[in-house]
From TrEMBL:
SMART domains: HTH_MARR
Record's keyword terms, sorted: DNA-binding
Keyword RNA-binding: no
Pfam families: MarR_2
Molecular function GO terms recorded: DNA binding; DNA-binding transcription factor activity
Cited SUPFAM superfamilies: Winged helix' DNA-binding domain
Native species: Pseudonocardia thermophila
InterPro entries: HTH_MarR-typ, MarR/SlyA-like, WH-like_DNA-bd_sf, WH_DNA-bd_sf
Protein name listed in UniProt: DNA-binding transcriptional regulator, MarR family
PROSITE patterns: HTH_MARR_2 (PS50995)
Length: 131
């Protein structure tokens, strides 16, 4: 598992996909994956960094035009992060690249092997403890 994590992290897949600044990819992934709109604190928790680091990453993503800040309509003191068109375009590019990498890695697998792998991987990830 450690070898898989080291070789195929989201940053590695983003960097190989040609993203200009791969340090921002975890932020974009977190904002995209969130069930609810999130602020910097939630980004920090999602990508497992401290608040100051998350603030810097979010500021860089905003400066790069990948995210924008919006006022929380239910709490005017809070700012929410929203993907911009450029952010969604970058995510689409990275997702397509990831799909190509995974498809190449499983090119000689049968459909039954792919289905079994997907089922077992989902079961494994679901059983992992949440941080």
């Amino acid at each position: 598992m450690v070898a898989i994590r080291r070789r195929q992290s989201r940053r590695t897949l983003a960097r190989v996909a040609g993203a200009a600044d791969d340090t921002l990819q975890p932020v974009l992934d977190a904002v995209e994956a969130a069930a609810e709109p999130m602020g910097v604190g939630e980004v920090a928790a999602a990508i497992d960094v401290d608040q100051p680091r998350a603030s810097k990453l979010v500021a860089a993503a905003v400066s790069a035009g990948l995210l924008r800040r919006e006022a929380d309509q239910s709490d005017g003191r809070r700012t929410l992060l929203v993907l911009t068109d450029a952010g969604r375009e970058r995510l689409a590019h990275v997702h397509a690249y990831r799909r190509r990498v995974f498809a190449a890695a499983m090119a000689d697998w049968t459909d039954a092997e792919r289905e079994t792998f997907a089922r077992l991987l989902t079961r494994f990830v679901t059983a992992l403890p949440r941080p």
